[in-house]
Amino acid sequence: MNQACDPCGNQLLGALPAQALKQWLPHLEPVDLALGQVLQESGGRMSHAYFPVSAIVSMLYVTEDGGSAEIAVTGFEGVVGISLFMGGQTTPSRAVVQSGGHGFRLPAAALISEFNRAGPTQALLLRFTQALITQLAQTAVCNRHHSLDQQLCRWLLLSLDRLHSCELQMTQELIANMLGVRREGVTEAAGHLQQAGLIRYHRGHITVLDRAGLERRACECYEVVKREYDRLLPLSQQVLGKLRA
């Protein structure tokens, strides 16, 4: 089945108990997630949870003066809308599609009902939430203590883990907005990575030439986050292999 039409292209949906997935299938709606589409506004209530398959969604914090910084990303490994089942209903962050693609959405009521059964689905969603919290915390540490070169490496690697190729369509201005830095800083950092032969960058198109080199240049933050996702969501590599097959 084409991954765009297969709910199991999303790791969480693919790991659901058969009965839970069967109950959700009539309510799961395939959706196209366009670059820049806002799935959740700060303080807004979500009517649906989103399960990306080939898209990446950024969680951004937007300041009063319009500045923004990315605090976490979610792709095929997770769900956008944890505030629905965690009980808070809203969140101060904004969810924006960083890389366009496909996914599924599920009405909030269906998600909450299954979560409240306190069974395997609840445990799975809570493990994802713990992994997401690790990413949030490590992003804060990275932004405070590590160089922009290292932050860019972490950001590129996290994005690659959620894509099905070694190429990203991303302008320097958008990357700067995600990292919460000046565009000139991203230009310089990307130039360093390109001179080192790690990436090729041209007109908003980034190709990773040396993934292993990028990992060596990154700070420990990327590995901390990856290790926690692999520990808590051990199906991630299986699903990734299926999507790339």
Task: Report on the architecture of this protein.
The protein is an alpha+beta fold. It folds into two domains: 3-118, Jelly Rolls, CATH 2.60.120; 147-218, Winged helix-like DNA-binding domain superfamily/Winged helix DNA-binding domain (Arc Repressor Mutant, subunit A, Orthogonal Bundle), CATH 1.10.10. It contains eleven helices and ten strands. The protein has helices at residues 11-15, 18-24, 82-86, 108-115, 120-145, 148-160, 172-179, 183-195, 211-217, 220-232, 236-244; strands at 29-33, 38-40, 48-52, 56-62, 68-74, 94-99, 101-107, 167-169, 199-202, 205-208. The strands form three sheets. The protein has a four-stranded antiparallel beta sheet. Helix 6 (148-160) crosses helix 8 (183-195), helix 6 packs across helix 9 and helix 7 (172-179) packs across helix 8. The longest helix is centred in the middle third of the chain and has 26 residues, at 120-145. The chain is globular and about 50 Å long. This is Crp/Fnr family transcriptional regulator. InterPro entries: cNMP-bd_dom, cNMP-bd_dom_sf, Env_Response_Regulators, HTH_CRP, RmlC-like_jellyroll, WH-like_DNA-bd_sf, WH_DNA-bd_sf. Residues 146-212 form the HTH crp-type domain. Keywords: DNA-binding, Transcription, Transcription regulation.
